[in-house]
Design brief:
Number of helices: 6
Number of domains: 1
Largest sheet: none
Order of helices and strands: HHHHHH
Low-confidence stretches: none
Distance between the termini: 20 Å
Number of strands: 0
Mean pLDDT: 91
């Protein structure tokens, strides 16, 4: 199972870092690593999602060239929080991943922006909200159901009725 997750993370970061910037040229781009972490949390639990969030964040930090640790901390926190709901939710629900990714996208942005503020960077909230976060939210919603279904099949195998 470890090899499956490692392969999935490598494929996901390759798609996110190489292919998606060619398709989405505006301000916001989908964060499919975040969507993967949220789906892992909802379906596999907080321990696995925190680990996946850690490795997804480190890979994203290396690939982006931005301040190292921003994505790692935010993805770990999101994985942990999404994993808290694992035993309390109906895993086959289509509404669940949509609601979870909406919350996760806002939390991910809030954690990242708060860390940047703590590091002394000036943030233009209105511009960032309009030009980056809202388009990213829309794209994440589009990707969340297919990724949720993929993670469901990876986690539960052939028992899937999804």
């Amino acid at each position: 199972m470890l090899l499956v997750w490692a392969g999935l993370l490598i494929i996901t970061i390759a798609v996110q870092a190489v292919l998606l910037p060619l398709i989405f040229t505006g301000g916001g781009k989908p964060d499919i690593l975040l969507t993967l972490v949220v789906a892992c949390g909802l379906l596999a639990g907080r321990e696995q999602a925190t680990g996946i969030g850690f490795f997804a964040g480190i890979i994203q930090d290396f690939a982006s060239g931005n301040i190292f640790g921003l994505n790692t901390l935010s993805k770990m926190a999101i994985g942990y929080l999404a994993g808290l709901a694992e035993r309390k939710v109906f895993k086959e629900s289509v509404v669940l991943p949509v609601l979870a990714i909406i919350i996760a996208t806002f939390l991910n942005s809030a954690v990242t922006q708060a860390l940047l503020l703590l590091l002394g960077y000036k943030i233009e909230f209105i511009s960032m909200l309009r030009n980056q976060m809202l388009p990213t939210l829309g794209y994440n919603i589009l990707f969340c159901i297919p990724i949720h279904r993929l993670i469901y099949r990876i986690t539960f195998g052939n028992r899937s009725q999804f």
